[in-house]
Amino acid sequence: MGLPFLNPYMESLGAPNFHHGCNFAAGGASVLPSNSPRFPFSFRIQVNQFTRFKARAIHLQAKEDKLREYLPPEDYFTRGLYVLDFGQDDVDVAFGSKSEDQVLAFIPTILSEFESGIQRLYNEGARNFWILNIGPLGCIPRIIVNYGKNASNLDELGCVRSHNHACRIYNNQLRDLCTKIRTQFPDANVTYVDIFSIKWNLISKFSQYGFKEPLAACCGYGGPPVNFDTRIACGVTMDLNGTTVTANACTNTSEYVNWDGNHYTEAANRHVTEQILAGNYTDPPLSMGHMQIHG
């Protein structure tokens, strides 16, 4: 697409350039407000950050012409693309204290908060949305280790059945929400992006895409099938049961779908991106050739 990576909103060093946009993403961010001080940046907080960013950008450009090369023009806030990728951490955390049935009953609460945030963005002028559904959480090594001890809870791929079922239910309701938003705001362009199907196809047909390890972590400890131990993170050396061990990275990262037991490898993320841009997993179907990219 020929555009640079977006600078993060929280970046304070140097001279960040926000002319093309701003990245409000934060690790572990949830839709619902979090009680954990480790992950304070919920969707509501990120929308608050966006509204402040927009107001400051417009105000500063009105005062200083030279700042216009670093900040987005006011019309960019309406013409720009808003990519929203939320929900997986909410479902993940919910399983820590709830039964599967309770998690399923909790999903509408998550999506109600998500809808409120989208409405706030719309009120601030946002009109173009990519809303990503959540991937197969049950295929992440950390989840398999923690919830897959009972083989009856594993599916045909070796993924945790309960978590993937919850993800599918969440995604179905998210798709319904996208339809509701289109009806409520007919001048908005709302694209539902099916990340779950992309990642599920990658994991289930990994060899077709050049991968050799669909579930094992590239950087981890423990060996097959998932090479992940909750006690030792990627790159860490520690004593386990009287033996010094290291969670080393593999040498052939491009053959692995998972990087560290939680995140996907660059090779897997590249595959996901290519599938999105090909337009085969979006509703409505996406044609990048018809998108206007502004430099």
Notes on the structure:
The chain has 295 residues and is an alpha/beta fold. The protein has helices spanning 43-63, 76-79, 88-94, 100-123, 141-147, 161-184, 195-204, 266-278, and strands spanning 81-85, 128-132, 189-193, 213-217, 237-240, 243-246, 256-258, 282-283. A four-stranded mixed sheet has the order 1-2-3-8. A two-stranded parallel ribbon has the order 4-7. α1 (43-63) runs parallel beside α4 and α4 packs parallel to α6 (161-184). It is globular, with a radius of gyration of 21 Å. The mean pLDDT is 94. It comes from Turnera subulata. GO terms for molecular function: hydrolase activity, acting on ester bonds. Pfam families: Lipase_GDSL (PF00657).
Principal-axes shape call: globular
Low-confidence stretches: none
SSE topology string: HHEHHEHHEHEEEEHE
Strand order of the largest sheet: 1-2-3-8
- Total strands: the figure is 8
| Largest pleated sheet | 4 strands, mixed
Mean pLDDT: 94
The proportion of residues in beta strands is 5-15%
The structural class is: alpha/beta
Residues in helix, %: 25-40%
Radius of gyration: 21 Å
Total discrete domains: 1
Number of helical segments with 4 or more residues: 8
End-to-end separation in angstroms reads: 10 Å
Name some characteristics of this structure.
alpha/beta; 295 residues; two-stranded parallel sheet; four-stranded mixed beta sheet
Q: What is the element layout, followed by pairings?
A:
Blueprint: H1 43-63, H2 76-79, E1 81-85, H3 88-94, H4 100-123, E2 128-132, H5 141-147, H6 161-184, E3 189-193, H7 195-204, E4 213-217, E5 237-240, E6 243-246, E7 256-258, H8 266-278, E8 282-283
Parallel strand pairs: 1-2, 2-3, 4-7
Antiparallel strand pairs: 3-8, 5-6
